[in-house]
Specification:
The structure is a single chain. By secondary structure, the chain is an all-alpha fold. It has a single domain, classed as Up-down Bundle (Growth Hormone, Chain: A). It contains 17 helices and no strands. Helix 12 packs parallel to helix 16. The radius of gyration is 21 Å and the shape is globular. 56% of the residues are buried.
Length: 442
């Protein structure tokens, strides 16, 4: 099926094999994000032992790449809308590879924290760019599923990485966690260069030199006929910039999705960052703690995949609200458990399932409520500011633990992020126009 507008061709046609490969690449890239963020959690018992850190001090270290992710999402998301998705992704991969490796050479906790911040910059920019790529290289029918699959990469990275790291930690120190992450991240650079073209939606709007030729090359790789000319586009639309996320028409949307993501991520990162240390404090080995955290990722991966399937039958907003409620309940249940590895693993599977499903719902909503010219910027801003929740979560939990708060009460308090996210998302207007399933293309 061919249209005069190449974006319409991609929207309405069946997806080609290469489009599925590109979505697969976004899954792999998000898996790197999932592993890189969790790497410090796997390594935290060893780091704490080597430098004799307090609970509160470890919470600050655990938050450093999250600060980087917040800054990277906001700044590099805007850059992805200016210079393109593909070069932004490549730059982020270089940054992540560098940061992951140099953590292993650190002479102090201060230097370690600085390199984790650099790694976080790359992770934050990467997520904004690949969320846009997954949306723009999928067709209308499969868009929500493609974003859900991309999101599933995060817990999949935790599962696969966790299995490898659990074995590594049996015979090696914490640095080998980052050696493994460095190798996997570097491997993705040539794959992106070879397989991932620039977004057709971005090329149509920005129109850099050679845009038509690049669009037709991509269309040919997808099995479509060439388009004879770029579709008409008003100059005013071309001049629109990332600041439009604060325009009258988008301000309420920007605020609501940002707050909902911020609040839910507080609960998400409580589980993600503190499970290994909490399990070790119960008397288990670091390897066993890594295994429990891996089960959280198993639940998360299954949640992402089933959420994507369910979007074909249920309203996206209502489905996300449902997941928020059960994220809260799952986190509360985790806090009531006794020191039993089997029970701990089962409860983190349940919590991981619903928490990650809520994250997928937010990524899907964000990708669909922002038009092309601010899709990466809007995603980057919502996720970047939302990362404030991820920064606060391990710090606040660490302070509560150091103050003597017991696990059951702490889990109840940290679960409230998902319920407050539910309250925020209620206000999002949904049901007509682009937000109902088709992103605006301007």
């Amino acid at each position: 099926m061919t249209h005069s507008d190449p974006r319409e061709t991609l929207e309405q046609s069946a997806m080609s094999r290469l489009q599925y490969v590109i979505v697969g690449l976004t899954i792999a890239l998000n898996a790197l994000d999932g592993f890189d963020v969790m790497a410090i959690s796997f390594a935290s018992p060893g780091i704490a032992a080597e430098w004799q850190t307090t609970q509160a001090g470890l919470g600050l270290i655990l938050s450093m790449e999250l600060w980087g992710m917040a800054v990277g999402s906001i700044l590099l998301g805007g850059i992805a809308d200016m210079i393109g998705r593909r070069p932004t992704i490549l730059g982020c991969l270089v940054m992540m590879t560098t940061g992951m490796y140099l953590v292993t050479t650190t002479p102090s906790l201060q230097v370690l924290s600085a390199w984790r911040f650099v790694t976080g910059l790359g992770i934050g920019g990467m997520l904004a760019a690949i969320n846009a790529q997954a949306a723009e290289f999928s067709n209308q029918r499969n868009r929500a599923l493609a974003i859900a699959l991309m999101s599933a990469g995060y817990p999949i990275g935790g599962v696969v990485g966790g299995m490898v790291v659990t074995q590594l930690l049996k015979t090696h120190d914490w640095r080998f966690v980052f050696y493994f992450g460095t190798a996997m991240t570097a491997l993705m650079i040539p794959l992106v260069l070879w397989l991932m073209p620039e977004s057709v939606h971005w090329l149509v709007r920005k129109r850099p030199e050679g845009a038509l030729q690049r669009i037709n090359t991509t269309l040919a790789r997808f099995g479509h006929a060439a388009t004879p000319a770029l579709p008409a586009l008003q100059e005013a639309l071309r001049a629109r910039a990332w600041i439009d996320i604060f325009s009258k028409s988008l301000l309420a949307t920007t605020f609501i999705v940002t707050m909902a993501y911020f609040l839910h991520i507080v609960t998400f990162y409580y589980i993600l960052k503190w499970v290994p240390k909490l399990v070790v404090d119960m008397g288990f080995s670091p390897a066993s703690a890594g295994g429990v955290l891996t089960w959280a990722s198993v639940g998360g991966a299954v949640g992402c995949l089933t959420f994507g399937y369910l979007t074909r039958f249920f309203d996206l907003k209502k489905l996300t609200l449902f997941m928020f409620v059960f994220s809260c309940l799952g986190t509360i249940l985790f806090g009531q458990t006794t020191a039993d590895l089997g029970t701990l693993s089962l409860l983190v599977v349940i919590a991981g399932y619903f928490i990650n499903s809520g994250i997928v719902g937010m990524y899907s909503l964000i990708a669909q409520v922002f038009p092309t010219h601010v899709r990466a910027s809007g995603t980057g801003f919502a996720i970047g500011v939302g990362r404030g929740g991820s920064v606060l979560s391990p710090i606040v939990a660490g302070l509560f633990l150091q103050g003597g708060m017991q696990l059951p009460l702490l889990s109840v308090l940290m679960s409230m992020g998902s319920i407050l996210a539910f309250a925020a998302l209620i206000w999002l207007q949904w049901g007509s126009g682009p937000a109902a399933g088709q992103p605006a293309r301007s």
